[in-house]
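A reminder from the course coordinator: this example appears on the midterm review sheet, so study it carefully.

Given structure:
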């Protein structure tokens, strides 16, 4: 990724939505829209050709949906991050995008400044986990997903403090909130998160949240800060 400009591919089957997204993103000098795609197949083709830093991905599209396109891009262009855009209330299966490798998702009614901030967050290698949006998604995934004995074993290999951090990540706390909760420096929390991802062979915080629920470390419906 460029030090100053984030390269973005916009994917949506609605012409007006794509035009609106391009207009919003083009107003920010730190973002460059390098291409547009109208369906999942085009998203994969352009994603592999252009190798953008971030793909803004719609879910329901013709030919190939956003979840399938996300899965392909995650496997073939791992450096590209996928940020799902959804109406949420209508996209009952959007939670599948997280398992497909998406780094997070936003509602289409998100304010322009929040969209721009989200793109930079994802481009920087972080995941977008807004508790207000993701709680139902994660809860549903936890219920639907079968237990993974291998992942459960990896969880047991974490230190007690790493488990504490993972539990709070799964509850939607930011690094700053986790640091305050555990009375440690934020840099220490970042180190713990990196070690958790490495030990459990996970791509990002989104996958860490999913694993925390799948393994039972955190139960659906458990309250946490900001939830």
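Designed residues:
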């Amino acid at each position: 990724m460029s030090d100053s400009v984030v390269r973005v591919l916009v994917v949506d089957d609605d012409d007006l939505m794509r035009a609106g997204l391009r207009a919003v993103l083009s107003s920010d000098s730190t973002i460059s829209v390098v291409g547009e795609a109208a369906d999942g197949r085009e998203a994969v083709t352009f994603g592999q050709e252009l190798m953008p830093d971030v793909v803004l991905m719609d879910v329901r599209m013709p030919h190939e949906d956003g979840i399938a396109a996300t899965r392909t891009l995650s496997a073939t262009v791992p450096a590209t991050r996928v940020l799902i855009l959804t109406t949420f209330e209508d996209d009952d299966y959007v939670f599948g995008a997280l398992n497909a490798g998406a780094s997070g998702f936003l509602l289409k009614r998100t304010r322009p400044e929040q969209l721009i901030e989200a793109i930079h967050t994802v481009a920087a290698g972080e995941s977008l986990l807004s508790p207000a949006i993701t709680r139902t998604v994660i809860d549903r995934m936890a219920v639907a997903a079968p237990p993974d004995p291998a992942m459960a074993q990896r969880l047991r290999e974490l230190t007690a403090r790493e488990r504490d951090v993972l539990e709070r990540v799964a509850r939607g706390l930011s690094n700053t909130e986790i640091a305050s909760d555990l009375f440690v420096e934020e840099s220490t929390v970042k180190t713990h998160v990196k070690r958790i991802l490495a030990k459990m062979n996970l791509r990002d915080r989104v996958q860490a949240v999913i694993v925390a629920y799948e393994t039972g470390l955190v139960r659906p419906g458990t309250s946490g800060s900001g939830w």
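The chain is about 50% helix and 10% strand. Residues 223-227 have pLDDT under 50 and may be disordered.
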